[in-house]
Amino acid sequence: MRHILSVIFENKFNAIPRISGLFSGRGYNMNSMSFGEGEDPETTRATITSEGDDQIIEQIAKQLNKLVDVIKVTELTYEPFVERELALVKVQSSAATRAEIMQVADIFRAKIIDLSHKTITIEVTGKEDKVNAIIEMLQQFGIREIARTGIVALKREFQK
Amino acid sequence: MTKKKRSPGTRMTGSEILVQTLVDLGVKKVFGYPGGKVIGLFDVLDRTSEIQEILFRHEQGATHAADGYARATGKPGVVIVTSGPGATNTVTGIANAHMDSIPMIVFTGQVPSAMIGNDAFQEADIIGITRPITKHSYLAQDPGQIGQIVREAYHIAITGRPGPVLIDLPSDITAGKGEYRPNDNIMIRGYNPTYKGHSQQINKAADMLNSAKRPLIYAGGGVNIGMASEELTEIANRGRIPVTTTLLGLGAFPEDNPLSVGMVGMHGTWYANMAMMECDVLMCVGARFDDRVTGRLNHFSPNSKKIHIDIDPSCIAKNVAVDIPIVGHVKEILPDIVKKIKPADTNAWMNQISHWKKEHALFYSKDSAEILPEYVVEKVAELTQHNAIVVTDVGQNQMWAAQYYGFKRPRQILSSGGLGTMGYGLPAALGAAIGCPEETVVCFTGDGGFQMNIQELTTAVQNQIPLKIILLNNGYLGMVRQWQELFFKKRYAMTVLSKGNPDFMKLAEGYGAVGLQASKPSEVEKVIQEGLKVKNAPVVMEFIIKPEENVFPMVPAGASLDEMLESGQ
Predict the structure, then answer these.
(1) What are phi and psi of B336, to 5 degrees?
(2) Residues B314, A63: contact at Cβ < 8 Å?
(3) Do domains B10-180 and B373-544 have the same CATH topology?
(4) Beta bridge partners of B310
(5) Which residues have CB under 8 Å from B312's CB, separation 6+?
(6) What is the spatial distance between Cα A155 and Cα B156, in angstroms, rounded to a whole number?
(7) What is the 3-state secondary structure (H, E, C) of B519-546?
(8) Which residue of chain A has the CA closest to B159?
(9) Where are the domains positioned within chain B?
(10) What is the pLDDT of residues B84-107, one digit of tens each?
(11) Residue B568: is its pLDDT beyond 80?
């Protein structure tokens, strides 16, 4: 099953390669990994999604924790969390298909952020399955390019 | 790294700051090899009387020597080499130290900062190359940082689960000037190893041991590294609990104690492996359920409840599920367990083990016309009163030394366990001898491994190190040949050395070492006696042993521990 790990680490030389190297070196599966500055500007937060049974994910978390630059590893899988992914999708378009594409974008509450005679670029944000769904719907028009951020996630604070 | 008010430090070059920081940390020996990018650094070392720098003849040798020094003394080994090939030659030694949790600091020269990434002369991305085999690594980017980096590296290398740390030094950073500030604190947010064990877990573990009918302690290298041999022995003695050790755990529990069942695993004793399979409570201390220990995992110690004490949380439940994990330092945890262990009646279990010991003792033929290696090891043990520091190479020689020497004290055997590095023996033995000059250091090696770092014989001669090299010459890469004999229909592909072996006596002479040879069993004792007398020079004692002697017992790869072969038949 899919697991999400949130990792805070020192924003230092060699830290990102050490984190990603762990996955290749130990043969762990990695679906996506996104990085960005954390709440403390000297740190980076990575959000990693991986497939595996609980035992493997526990090993991954332990191995990440072992890295000197890693400050905190949280597994979000078993607690309520919010997740988002952003994707930019450049779709082939002509005068004939433009309206239909814009309708698809509208249904998914996606934004049109660029337009040319031959293409439309759409920005969509949401959970991974929503992003997958709009991409699926846009396939019929011909997708030129896709850029996805991978998932970012945080624990949900308000819990009943 | 937090610095509040920084008092101005003394201005020095990066090399000077580095060396001064090593002096501050109490480093006495540095193992190395020079080259273009570290000339300045060795120049400063040469003028520093507190530190002795020892020239090896290959960077791999220097790295293994630092490893041997660290294992024998408990202090981290320090290595300095140049960039490019100098750095890449340390890779095997670093990987070896990483696998066996040996504290080491490796300084590598690097091309000037501005040239990094341009494929400059003798440039290699050594930080990238060593990333998976170092505990941590640093690239020095400012001469003023060097002191801090060295102190952090030293701290990381020796604390928690020890390991190698690499520091890459661009030549403009070592040549440039910065401030030397010895009093800055080190604070590493993400690095806080757990030392104290969880008290409830400790209570539960003690209860579990106290209620066991057939308890067994399985002790690993962590007990040697953590200097907790006394505490371990006390637990065993008090609770009448038998103890088996891994290869790296040998010496952590005296083998002459009746509770010792010797080494476990692929070439462990019959009775240790059977005890693993039959025990009802197994306490693993500072070991990691390695595949060479467990045999087939799904049939490993099937009837036992398991306790696992380890400083590295990632070792717990990695291979084997355990009932009571305890994360922490053995030196902190074992005394807490000692207090709670009650004298127990394990007589029935001990009787069973004694019976096994009689029925399935380690065995070799006593009337062989050829020299048997087991006999050589036993004789060396006898003539060194089981008290030498024993360094092994890898392969059959390693297993015979492990099985037959009879270790009595911690840090007495130095062996490449995890990585299984042929060529480790000679340089590691030199490191041990340099660290412990008052001790007898014996190196068991074979004609294969000896030739993998034979250049270090020069280092021994130059430094007048009276190393006792026991060369068990069978003309084969013996361990692989043994597998070929047992599992590949005796097709000895790539394993015959006899046709190309040098004359080891002439070779010893050529290097300026003493050479002694025995080719008949009757000559063995005399050669060892004479060899042990040699002062101020290394001695190569070559024993022409029975070429096809095998190491038994043996758990074939993929078999369960109770499926041992006791002989080739």
Answers:
(1) -65, -35
(2) yes
(3) yes
(4) B327
(5) A66, B160, B161, B288, B327
(6) 32
(7) CCHHHHHHHHHHHHHCCCCCEEEEEEEC
(8) A68
(9) 10-180, 199-359, 373-544
(10) 999 999 999 999 999 999 999 999
(11) no
Q: Tens digit of pLDDT for each residue in B350-385?
A: 999 999 999 999 999 999 999 999 999 999 999 999
What is the complex's ipTM, to 2 decimals?
Answer: 0.93
Of B189, B191, B314, the CB nearest to A63: B314
Tell me if B169 sits within 8 A of B109, measured CB to CB: yes
CA distance B289 to chain A (A): 15
Look at the block and give the residue holding tokens 């102190």: B151
Residue B142 tokens read as: 């400012």
Q: Is the pLDDT of residue B193 over 60?
A: yes
Is residue B375 within 8 A of residue B521, CB to CB? The reply is: yes
Count each helix (H run) and each strand (E run) in chain B, helices first.
22, 20
Which helix (H) or strand (E) element contains residue B374? helix B373-383
- The answer for residues whose C-beta is within 8 angstroms of residue B482's C-beta and 6 or more apart is B396, B550, B551, B554
Q: Which fold has domain B373-544?
A: Rossmann fold (3.40.50)
Rounded Cα gap, residues B167 and B150, in angstroms: 8
Predicted pLDDT of residue A160 = 67
Note the pLDDT of residue B7: 62
What is the distance between the alpha carbons of residues B512 and B172, in angstroms, rounded to a whole number? 40
Q: How confident is the model at residue A159 (pLDDT cuts 50, 70, 90)?
A: confident
pLDDT at B183: 86
Which chain B residue lies closest to A7 (C-alpha atoms)? Answer: B190
Contact between A118 and A93 (Cβ < 8 Å): yes
- Interface contact B131, partner A, CB < 8 A: yes
Residues found in chain B: 569
Q: How many CB atoms lie within 10 A of CB B120?
A: 15
Any idea what DSSP says for residue B342?
P
CATH number, span B199-359: 3.40.50.1220
Cβ within 8 Å of A, B 178-207 = 188-191
**Kind of pairing between the strands at B389-392 and B281-285:** unpaired
What's the topology of domain B10-180?
A: Rossmann fold (3.40.50)
Give the per-residue pLDDT at B1. Answer: 45
**Cα separation, B341 vs B546, whole angstroms:** 47
Q: Which domains does chain A have, with CATH numbers?
A: 2-75 (3.30.70.260), 84-155 (3.30.70.1150)
CB–CB contact B314 A59 (8 Å): yes
Using the beta-carbon criterion (under 8 Å), do A18 and B314 form an inter-chain contact? no
Show which of residues 5-44 on chain A sit within 8 Å of chain B, judged by CB atoms: 9-10, 13-14, 17-18, 21, 25
Interface residue B117 vs chain A (CB under 8 A): no
